[in-house]
Specification:
Number of domains of chain A: 1
CATH class of chain A: Alpha Beta
Oligomer: heterodimer
Number of domains of chain B: 2
CATH topology of the largest domain in chain B: Cytochrome-c3 Hydrogenase, chain B
Largest sheet of chain B: 3 strands, antiparallel
Largest interface: A-B, 38 and 44 residues
Strand order of the largest sheet of chain A: 1-2-3-6-5-4
Order of helices and strands of chain A: EHEEHEEEEHE
Distance between the termini of chain B: 73 Å
CATH architecture of chain A: 2-Layer Sandwich
Structural class of chain A: alpha/beta
CATH topology of chain A: Beta Polymerase, domain 2
Largest sheet of chain A: 6 strands, mixed
Strand order of the largest sheet of chain B: 1-2-3
Strand content of chain A: 25-35%
Structural class of chain B: mainly alpha
Strand content of chain B: 5-15%
Number of strands of chain B: 8
Helix content of chain A: 10-25%
Order of helices and strands of chain B: HEEEHHHHHEEHHHHHHHHEEEHHHH
Number of helices of chain B: 18
CATH superfamily of the largest domain in chain B: Cytochrome-c3 Hydrogenase, chain B
Number of strands of chain A: 8
CATH superfamily of chain A: NADH:ubiquinone oxidoreductase Nqo5 subunit
Amino acid sequence: MRKAKPFKVPRGMKNGADHPLAQKIQAEFADFYIGATLFRDDLSIHLKREGLFSICRFLKEDPALDFDYPIHISSVDFPNEAERFEVVYEFYSIRKKHQIRLKTRVPEDDCVIDSVTPLWAGANYLEREVYDMMGIRFNNHPEMKRILLPDEYDEGYPLRKNFPIQGRGWRDTFDFPH
Amino acid sequence: MAVENPPTEEASLPLLKTEEVLLNLGPQHPSTHGVLKVIVTLEGEKVIKSEPVLGFLHRGVEKIAEQITYNQFIPHTDRLDYICAMYNNFAYVRAVEKLLDITVPWRAEYLRTIVAEVQRIIGHLFWLGTQALDIGAMTVFFFTFRDREVLLDLFVDLCGARLTTSWYRVGGVERDFTDKIIDDLYRFIDSFPEKIAEYDALLIRNRIWLARTKDIAVISGEDAIAYGLTGPTLRGSGVDYDLRKVSPYGAYGHVEWTVPLGTKGDTYDRYWIRMEEMKESSKIIRQCLDQLPKGPYKAYLPKFVAPDKERVFTDMESMIYQFKLYSGGFNAPEGDIYCGTEAHKGELGFYIVSQGGGKPYRMKIRAPSFVHMGAFDHMAKGYMIADIITIFGTYDIVMGECDR
């Protein structure tokens, strides 16, 4: 197994480890917690992907946290880093009025992460979009297939950084007169 | 002729064949508000399962955003939800301002709020007209489009375009209100209650309208939150969540208004909420116009905001800043932010990842229409096939935003 790098707060961001939400997650899930950052008052918590589902269930079911509203799920591609893809979850609690962002990394050769659709029904389409655009598969998802692109599309995943902006595949065979 | 014995009851009834029918609805159907296909499984007229097929209008806006500077992306936000371009601009520039950590002058905040609320009225008028048209009440469409045109003419005076406006800028707005625009706005909101009374006269006791909207597409508050519904679709189920109240931006914290809430979560409640929101919007516009402070309409931050043309022509530094801004964009700090804004359809959010430099590293657009389509199967189940058209309408869906 690859040795995990020690967590370093990026330049320009504050350390969010003192935030009450971060401390609560750290106390409950010390094995999966990596670190926390604060940027423009947005709290981001970095996690190991093995613990993602149990942490999400804790966030939803703990009465003091009560994260009931999934705002968005998205993904970022860092082609030069060891664990290439970052999956980003953003949740909000309508009753408790607090917000949290979870970040977890997925390596390119094993692009799989647990789905949170069993917890929030709205995660279904959001996760399908992540799969469609970035090629990250979600375990236990009811219908893991493309959503915006056609089902038979096989030119890759367009939001990966190595995908050219003009597209690829059948466009290369176009025979333009000029 | 011999009279035959009447057939027995069993023989007279041919065996009723009951089987599920698979039906393709769309993508070329006028009521789908764009190009959207739904594969519905029917039992008789009842919907068992429905599966939206999205992506007919996918243009790869998020990929385009990674190739161009922050300011160059503003016109692309117009094309997301082309009914409601001003609010998309607003949501986007707010997100960029949060990333840059800059504040805008008060006059700009008020101008932004006024135009955003005008845009909300336009969006709701458009929704009301098309929803009534889908149900068969055609007259409402003409009335709402008549009044929408008055407001679109205001946008023409303001920025020269009716729909693709691009009037908001990072750090302020593109140009100030003229006296004519302020007078026209006062005139419009003075006459607006009469116009709402006209729409009400056409709909409020219309039996067909009530039969087609009451108890249709009911969703409970809990389910609506779990599906990520926002805007009038969420508030129709009685959940008090409006970003303008929860985290006030613009001038919303300085004016008095209320958030209308539904009780049942059916299509009628969502219609009622939009009608009430139009009244609240005209209240906000009037208070903002009364309070409109004097001052600059754009922040003076030459590193991020293009300086005035007058300065550019007379001052060397400003000209250098202008050149740097338009050739390479401003230098955004490293970091990532999410900023949600209450557009008239729901929460329109931008998640921007910056690694420094003039272009975003990754931009995710949280479009309300896309998230709402995720709840479509849940809301259409058990209703009649004709109600499917009403459910598209009740989301106020625009495919340009849904497919991005």
